[in-house]
Amino acid sequence: MTTAGQAPGQAQANLIAIPRDWAYDFLLFTHRNPKPCPVLDVLDAGETVSSLKQDADVRTHAPRYRIWEHGELVAEPENATEHWRDDLVTFLIGCSFTFETALTNAGVPLRHVDQGRNVSMFVTDVQCRPAGRLHGPMVVSMRWIPESLVDIAHKVTSLMPAVHGAPVGAGDPHLLGIDDVHSPDFGDAIEPEPGDVPVFWACGVTPQAVLMKSKPPFAITHAPGQMFVTDMPDFAYRVG
């Protein structure tokens, strides 16, 4: 179940828990790649409650999790408790679902929400800046936006840099190394309406692409599009 369109007005977050001896590398990676990996919170090793949602456990609050071993996906449980380790450092990273209420309020339609689907996500050929042992490509989310509203979508989202901010591309998907916008790497294919153009935002699933390339021994993430919903209002991440 995707959390797109759920909990309107509340910030949502991507989640990755990584062993403590890899946590500095990951923190450095987020610092060097703030567009796809804007950090909202970092928990101490073994800690399971974030200040962003004090009545929730990071091991159980997302609808579905992914368990990774040496870059391979080995399980997708609804509850990650039995996989938990006390040396895991959890990062909560901004999610573009957070700015979707603002887009709706500005009159920008959300085709994936209207169709009851997850947003489309693609691995690009844009390489993130490496950090320590971590390297890999940027992932983007794509929304079909009426061409006449692309400038408005750009303006609205640019005011929310903590949840990916302005788009990284619009129009030609080949500029990002995307061959077919109807065959996403994560999420669902979305049907456009006449006059729509594809618009791409940096995506917090990027760490999962980095896990596949860098192959740390263990990690836990959320499943793409099945986010950690916080108690923070979305406007808390709006600037200006």
Automatic annotation (TrEMBL):
InterPro entries: D-Glu_cyclase (IPR009906), Putative_hydro-lyase (IPR038021), UPF0317 (IPR016938). GO terms for molecular function: lyase activity. Its EC number is 4.2.1.-. It holds the Pfam family D-Glu_cyclase. It comes from the Bacteria. Keywords: Lyase. PANTHER family: D-GLUTAMATE CYCLASE, MITOCHONDRIAL (PTHR32022:SF10). This is Putative hydro-lyase SAMN04488000_106135. Belongs to the D-glutamate cyclase family. It comes from Lentzea albida. Gene3D superfamilies: PSTPO5379-like (3.40.1640.10), PSTPO5379-like domain (3.30.2040.10).
